[in-house]
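ingest -> fold -> write
write: protein_1
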Amino acid sequence: MKKYVIAGTGTRGLHMFGKPLVSKYSEFARLAGVFDTNVKRANVFKKMTGGDFEVFEDFDHMLDAVKPDTVIVTTQDAFHDVYIVKALKKGCDVITEKPMTTDEFKCNNILRTERETGKKVTVTFNCRYMPFLLEIKKLMMQNIVGEVTSVHFEWLLDQVHGADYFRRWHSNKRISGGLQIHKATHHFDIINWLIDDEPRIVSAFGSLRFYGSNGTYKGNHCFNCEHKDLCKFYVDKANNPFYKEFYFDNMDIDGYAPDMCVFRNEIDIEDTLSVSVRYKKGAVMSYTLTAYSPYEGYKININGTKGRLEIENYAGKHLKEPVKQVRYFDEEHKMTLIDIEEGRGSHGGGDSALLEVLFKGSDEDPYNRHANSRAGAMSIGIGIAINNSIREQKQIKIKDILWELDVD
């Protein structure tokens, strides 16, 4: 039975890995330790999992004491590389939450260390495991649109889910890399995977148009804000039993609680993005992200030499029920509606399907769902290039930021 440890005891680490390892996969895997810089929260993490494992305040000590087979990294994004590299050098394989890391220097260090140690990095791209998107992948593998020529991808975050990123540590670009890395790493991997191609050139524009300094009512946190009766973005997380025990009762350690004001002047990530990507095989993609939409979801149009695939998956208060629709237009301009059921469970059924593979194991991968470090790098490579393109106001070549990979 393999031994696992977790670095980073936030909500993702708890719900995606901690609880399932203890309650569902204990026959196949053993959670032997957890580490976090906030040891109080780590102890709450242990309590909430119901597991019997040690809580560590020092990551290196945990590796030496436990000698795990695999380290699961679910820390804040900008620190993934620290724990990935240390784990690899200690002879451990690594499972890391997306994004693999946040800039080109950290990314290349991970790639180089993985190659030198011979150990393996797996990136948890759960979208590849969503039943809805898996059916799209099957259609693409049937060459339904022919050679892919262009992709238009629009992602919409509403003013509930989207606003949450601006309440949390993700609103600090130094830590998250911005939504183009933290959030859109999923989106870019979806396209890379669906069209079976890799990005080569990226150009982007981005700005902060809605959150941050654009708001009227400002404070530090919702729980102590004088504008809570006036601001529509006020949330009462401090009195939520889970958030209180997991975060607010532990603020004395690191000062963090996930109810920061969405209109803080110090917010420096973009909420509006427009991106162009050219792929190795010649396809081009236009991608937009809006983090303050009236409704939430995505629309993907894939054009090819034999047809067009239109994918819509969104929901909002203006709709009686969510829209999940796939349309195919063939060479004769005939339109066919393709019925695909949405998966059940967190992230459209993707989380549970991914965990089955991670902890029970499977050598079969007919749809290329197992994401390695190259897939992780190609996904964040677009996000990193977006940041560089916005800053430098020019096109960015992927080969110039992923120099540890063979990129032609």
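write: protein_2
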Amino acid sequence: MSLPHLSDEQIATWTREQKDRWWLENVFRGNMAQLTLRSAFTGFLLGGILAATNLYIGAKTGISVGVGLTSVILAFSLYRGLARAGLATDFTILENNCTQSIATAAGYMTAPLISALAAYMLVTGTIPPAWHLIVWLVVVALIGVLLAFPLKRRFINEEQMPFPEGRACGVVLDALYHGKGDEGVYKARLLGLTAGATALYQMGVSDGWMRLIQFKVLQLHRWAGLDEPWHLHERLDTYYYDLAARLQWATPRILGTDIRQLGLRLTLDAAMLGVGGLMGIRVASSVMLGAFVNFFVLAPLMIQRGDIVARIAADGTTTAISRTEIVNQWALWWGVTMMIVGSLVGLLGKPDLFKSLFRRKRRPVAPAVPMCSPTSRCRSGCRTSACPSASPRAPGCRTPISACRGCSRWLRSR
């Protein structure tokens, strides 16, 4: 089932009232459960879990990933399983949509923690109290919600812009609920298998998990004589350097600098594999090219020239050259400059986007089409559930929408 949408000509020529009427006729489902207690609770639960993962990835890489698609599939698989077990009814498509909206809001709420607040703590060297962070995040979230109303009215109601993540969630929801019955179950199983394999690998490279399993559970330090727990190396080149130390092999260098000082390590991180898959080849190739130019070419040259040197700390200790020092002494400046200038020039190259924010388009007023109000009954007596068509004499619809003051006011407010 394809998602209903307006054509480009309709978007350009129709008034907002016409678009709202089309939405009521073709999209609105007033008799389907939407914002329920279980959809809200599920959204809060999934949002909290996915926000923690988003915070981890953001703190590690500075990248914020969307959680909408993940929450859609998780909520679908959860309630489909409960429905098959006879413990709950299946989620409706609108309940799932509410769940992913709540989960997405919670996931993106961690963005200030990996940007502005992280920079503040890095510069000042102090960590604010937890309640300060909570209040600040709540205030920022409320401001964002208030700003969302005019933006939604302009870009979604009027311009009908298909936001990439929201549209992707809509396509997945449509495929899960209106596609083949086994398709959603297959995707849920694939998600579960991927999650299990990822969890096993991350446990294998985690010193904490291996210490818990080998020392606390299996007691290997008593009967096997282990001093340190065995675990996989997340940095795969560690195996080479261990072998090179025993066989006295040379370590790779670029212009006399050990590549380990440049931060060039072959690391297998499951979370970063997922980020690369979501990022796509177009963005990932640009990121890879920037890393190559900086750490393979420019950083070794700057170290050889003496522009990047070991730093003397305030206590007199020497801070050796590392990836952090390369970023702080050199890469930070050209990298941030390219990000800001490139973004601004790209935005300024689309002046119509800014003009549309402040320009009120004049469009021909369409003739009034009788329809029912989305409310159960307005003051003029217009019902919603029993009006199957847009005819002025449709059964159950007493008042045309053009003559219904409550309906017209609702349409203008959208």
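write: annotation protein_2
Confidence is low (pLDDT under 50) at residues 368-413.
DSSP finds 17 helices and four strands in the chain.
pipeline exit 0
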